[in-house]
Design a protein that fits this description.
The chain is α/β, with parallel strands linked by helices and 550 residues long. The protein is built from 16 helices and 17 strands. The strands form four sheets. A ten-stranded mixed β-sheet has the order 4-5-6-7-9-11-12-15-14-16, with helices on one face. InterPro entries: LRR_dom_sf.
């Protein structure tokens, strides 16, 4: 599209606009990546009002594909956040259009508004004006999701942040109760905001992200709320002297209040940048422990998907277990009848707890027929003399399975067949003198016993550098009932070690966190570490590139 095409765009809006219900605006070439490529129209004077005023029945508007890079220099390298006259002109026209699309009699207006571009200098004023326009002209809004364009590595790294006061937040929650999807990345991670959200039930809310946003600068936010106009510092690296204010950031404690507003929630996601959190903490991960998940099970009975993911985008050599997330969480979630997919962060889980999860869940009258569970056994970090506790816990689980018949366990006969992945989050390369007797005397006997007692169970162990009784590392074990796939029936799946792995072992050995007194008791041997793919990536490769379960 060139400047000569602009009059044609006006004509199309006039002739066809009455039938348009969904509009996505793009200027520039269509390319992949975080941002659209600036095009020849970016510096053109487009009369947006001539377009918007001819769309009387519009319900969904997406402006995220507008490239505004050449209007004024961006503050953030990877986002569309700009400031100054150009963005003010666009938002002014937008608010006028929102008023035009609003029906005062029915209260109807746009149901979806996807606009991440707002003034980056006067954030409090621009955010307040934006939310007030939404409340006034789009009170039945279902998707206010411009933040999707502003995420870098998931919701834990999002540059669309609302400088919203608690008073404005209260009004927004009281008015816009028709939301179907919301991400906490855009608002302060704070107890007062949790309480307000929970005080106003959102009966249609289906998807919720409860991730803390590492990009928040509370020092800047509190000054803005005090009425100061604060220009963003270079790279937003100003010292966050307000990070310790009670009830905000690291000091929140009332996150479960949010769940009061979500009785029909079907998808809950939590993204954590573990690498960043290990270097300079931005979120207290202990919040996501047994108490939280117990509240989730009680207040969100229709959940189908639970995801806790690492969104750092880098190799993580310092795995930090959520020590408040234990077997109690598994027991709480075992009774959720609609759950189809469960992925938990590295946690203090045990073989006995996983077995109890299987035993309890098979007795439920589930509404869904399939269930994929991905858990990581950690928190029992190794010492210099011991391997990760993961190796002992999988043997304990297998022993319990071997002691229980297939009929007594009931997993094969129940309506819902679970598929469980038990992962090792640590990167330890075990010592050869240790792994040989472990494989020969501990693991193989229980593997054979389980296969004999549970003929319907496809049991599989994924390793790296496996050769006979020698291996570098066990990545995870998989349990799948009633599988007819020959691929699932192969007991061992091996990822061959190569020269590149040796270099990664060396790098990781200098960075992996070591804690005392929590290894696999009684097991010695020197350990080094390496970085393998995540369970998600490994399974995608093993399944021909299909991210089938995760």
């Amino acid at each position: 599209m060139t400047a000569e095409d602009i009059p044609r765009m006006y004509q199309l809006a006039e002739s066809k606009g009455a039938a348009v219900r969904c509009l996505t605006v793009r200027l520039g070439r269509k390319e992949s990546g975080y941002d659209p490529t600036p095009g020849v129209l970016d510096d053109s004077d487009i009369d947006w009002d001539r377009v918007f005023r001819h769309l009387p029945t519009l319900k969904r508007l997406d402006l995220t594909k507008l490239s505004l890079r050449v209007c004024l220099q961006n503050h953030y390298e990877y986002t569309n956040a700009v400031y100054g006259a150009p963005i003010e002109k666009l938002t002014t026209t937008l608010y006028q259009a929102l008023e035009r699309w609003h029906d005062e009699k029915t209260g109807a207006g746009l149901r979806q508004l996807t606009v991440p571009t707002r003034n980056e200098v006067e954030r409090l004023r621009s955010t307040t004006e934006f939310l007030e326009a939404v409340m006034k002209f789009c009170p039945q809004i279902e998707f206010l999701d411009g933040y999707e364009k502003m995420k870098v590595h998931g919701d834990a790294q999002c540059y669309d942040m609302w400088a919203v006061t608690l008073d404005t937040w209260e009004k927004f929650n009281k008015t816009c109760t028709s939301l179907k999807k919301f991400s906490w990345a855009v608002v302060p991670f704070a107890d007062p905001f949790f309480q307000v959200f929970g005080d106003h039930v959102k009966p249609n809310l289906m998807e919720l992200s409860l991730s803390a946003n590492e990009c928040w600068n509370y020092h800047r936010y509190f000054r803005e709320c005090d009425g100061q106009i604060v220009a963003p510092p270079p790279n937003d690296d100003e010292e966050d002297v307000e990070a310790s204010r009670p009830g905000y950031g690291l000091l929140v404690s009332e996150i479960t209040a949010v769940l009061r507003a979500c009785p029909t929630l079907t998808k809950l996601s939590i993204a954590i940048d573990y690498r960043r959190n290990a270097r300079s903490r931005y979120v207290n991960t202990r919040l996501y422990g047994d108490e939280f998940w117990g509240a989730v099970a009680d207040r969100c009975p229709h959940l189908e998907t639970i995801t806790m993911s690492d969104c750092s985008g880098y190799a993580n050599y310092s795995v930090k277990s959520i020590d408040t997330l234990t077997d109690r969480t598994l027991i709480s979630l075992a009774t959720m009848k609609s759950l189809r997919s469960l992925e938990l962060a590295p946690a203090r889980l045990t073989g006995k707890g996983i077995f109890e999860y299987l035993r309890i869940s098979k007795d439920q009258e589930f509404l869904k027929n399939d269930l994929a569970v991905q858990i990581r056994v950690s928190g029992h970090e190794r010492t210099l003399q011991a391997t990760p506790r993961f190796y002992g816990e999988i043997v304990e689980l297998l022993k319990l399975l071997a002691e229980t018949s297939e009929e007594d366990l009931g997993a094969a006969a129940c309506r819902r067949k679970p598929e469980i992945y038990i992962g090792n989050p640590y990167k330890s390369k075990v010592d050869r003198s240790w792994c040989e007797p472990y494989m020969r005397d501990r693991l193989m006997p229980v593997l054979e016993a389980v296969r004999e007692r549970h003929p319907s169970l496809a049991l599989q162990v994924w390793l790296c550098g496996h050769n006979g009784d020698i291996f570098n590392r066990i990545d995870f074990i998989k349990l799948k009932w009633n599988s007819k796939d020959e691929f699932d029936r192969q007991l061992f799946k091996n990822t061959p070690a190569d020269d590149e792995d040796d270099e990664i072992y060396r790098i990781a050995s200098m960075n992996e966190t070591i804690s005392l007194g929590s290894g696999d008791e009684g097991e010695g041997g020197q350990v080094t570490v390496h970085n393998l793919h995540s369970l998600r990536d490994i399974m995608a490769e093993g399944l021909g590139g299909e991210g089938r379960y995760f």
